[in-house]
Write a structure and sequence with these properties.
The chain has about 400 residues and is α/β, with parallel strands linked by helices. The chain is about 40% helix and about 15% strand. It is built from 13 helices and 13 strands. The strands form four sheets. The protein has a seven-stranded parallel β-sheet with strand order 5-4-3-6-11-12-13, with helices on both faces. It starts with 6 loop residues before the first strand and ends with a helix. 1,4-dihydronicotinamide adenine dinucleotide (NAI) binds next to helix 2, strand 4 and strand 11.
């Protein structure tokens, strides 16, 4: 069949299996030729491994110098009679196939990382088929819902401000328009729920479960990812509901760090750059900032995508061969350092001052933004001939 992009709002309803494969191969190719990880981990569990920062982490740790065996957990759909499935399913498949060619173990668990059953399956696999333990756990889940571990009731996050509402612009990827909207102010319950979905609670539960089952190796490390941004976006993110969740994530890292110390290990949060991912396009009023940021950082020659960020994180900040992890005074690893440079922020601010619904495509890097979004779903890649039919039979009977 011939597959075309179908976008509804901020969601891609189709994905291109061949394009997804090419996008993962590009990431592998990038890390092979970048500065390599030194003395990296060998047995890695990635929670949220199929796209964005989690996929890039996995690619970096397998192909960027560490040659790590990896287990990936992700919530994705495979092809069936109803549809093509989701990009992350094809990404996971390509990752496994390429890792296996290198003689690396790459096990995919496709399902709900919040379910006790998934945790048990992962632990059983580590015990029986993965050498008994992991020396790194990456927590990179991004989701809007999480079941309450005690009651099973669904908790939903809200992408809202705290204190007072805010008017802002958001890109509509379906109509290629910049639309004005009001970001409502969250209630106390909404703040609490967002913290429970996107804060550190589930990360801590995973670590506790892995620890209780004796599958964390001595010296095991764990990382989760965060965003802070600059004062331009504070009202939207850092001081909003998501920021509250991230603060909880940061304090969870400190609690986990003490726990991990018992086995000679560590827990850290890496603060990353604002990028286009399946999750981030949902954050209202963030897109004008990202459009301006991309334009500025590309013009300055310092733009990075997820894969560049993750390879720099691991090869420069964590496994540089120096034996220590670079952090700021709050114990955070800052790969958002280039985004937050004063010269970058000054230029971004100037662009935003002159950006409106009529000129955002010229003032900001909408072309780059949209291309990144299409690439996430296997579209708009130069190497792929989209007029060629995709043989879906190759995919229907295999597991990723
Ligand atoms: P993403 O949407 O690209 O990836 C999320 C991953 O979580 C996917 O692999 C998905 O399958 C998995 N997932 C979601 N729900 C799941 C479930 N119930 N069970 C199993 N897997 C599940 O998101 P992105 O942007 O890479 O986010 C990862 C982390 O990075 C988040 O903590 C996010 O806040 C953080 N971050 C993102 C930034 C951005 O600009 N995108 C910037 C800085 C930090």
């Amino acid at each position: 069949m011939i597959i075309q992009p179908v976008i509804k709002g901020q969601v891609a309803k189709t994905c291109h299996p061949v394009g997804c494969r090419e996008a993962v191969l590009d990431q592998i190719n990038y890390v092979r030729n970048a500065q390599q990880i030194k003395e990296g981990p060998k047995k890695v569990l990635v929670l949220g491994s199929s796209s964005g920062f989690g996929l890039a982490s996995r690619v970096s740790l397998a192909f960027g110098g560490a040659r790590a065996d990896t287990i990936g957990v992700a919530f994705e759909r495979g092809p069936n009679e109803k549809g093509i499935g989701s990009a992350g399913w094809y990404n996971s498949l390509t990752f496994r196939e390429e890792a296996e060619k290198e003689g690396l173990i790459a096990k995919n668990f496709i399902g709900d990382a919040f379910s006790p059953d998934m945790r048990r399956q992962v632990v059983e696999y580590i015990k029986n088929e993965f050498g008994g333990s992991v020396d790194l756990v990456i927590y990179s889940l991004a989701t809007g819902v999480r079941p309450d571990p005690k009651t099973g009731e669904m908790i939903r996050s809200s992408l809202k401000t705290v204190g007072s509402p805010l008017t802002g612009y958001t890109v509509n990827l379906e109509t290629d328009a910049l639309e004005e909207g009001v970001l409502d102010c969250a209630s106390e319950q909404e703040i609490e729920d967002t913290v429970r979905v996107m804060g550190g609670e589930d990360w801590a539960e995973w670590i506790e479960f892995l620890s209780d089952n004796g599958v964390l190796a001595n010296g095991c490390q764990t990382f989760a990812y965060s965003y802070i941004g600059s004062d331009i976006t504070y009202r939207i993110y850092h001081e909003g509901t998501l920021g509250r969740a991230k603060k909880h994530l940061h304090s969870t890292a400190d609690v986990l760090n003490e726990k991990m110390a018992e086995i000679g290990g560590t827990a850290h949060v890496a603060v990353c750059k604002a990028l286009v991912t399946k999750a981030s396009v949902f954050i209202p009023a963030m897109s004008p900032y990202i459009l301006a940021l991309f334009r500025v950082m590309k013009e300055m020659g310092i733009h990075e995508g997820c894969i560049e960020q993750m390879q720099r994180l691991f090869s420069h900040c964590v496994y540089s061969g120096s034996g220590h992890i670079c952090t700021d005074e709050d114990r955070l690893i800052r790969v958002d350092d280039w985004e937050l440079r004063a010269d970058v922020q000054e230029k971004v601010r100037k662009l935003l001052d002159g950006m409106d619904g009529a000129n955002f495509m010229q003032v900001g890097d909408y072309e780059g933004y949209k291309k990144d979004f299409l690439n996430l779903n296997g579209f708009s890649l130069e190497k792929v001939n989209y007029s060629e039919p995709v043989d879906m039979n190759r995919y229907v009977s295999i597991n990723p």
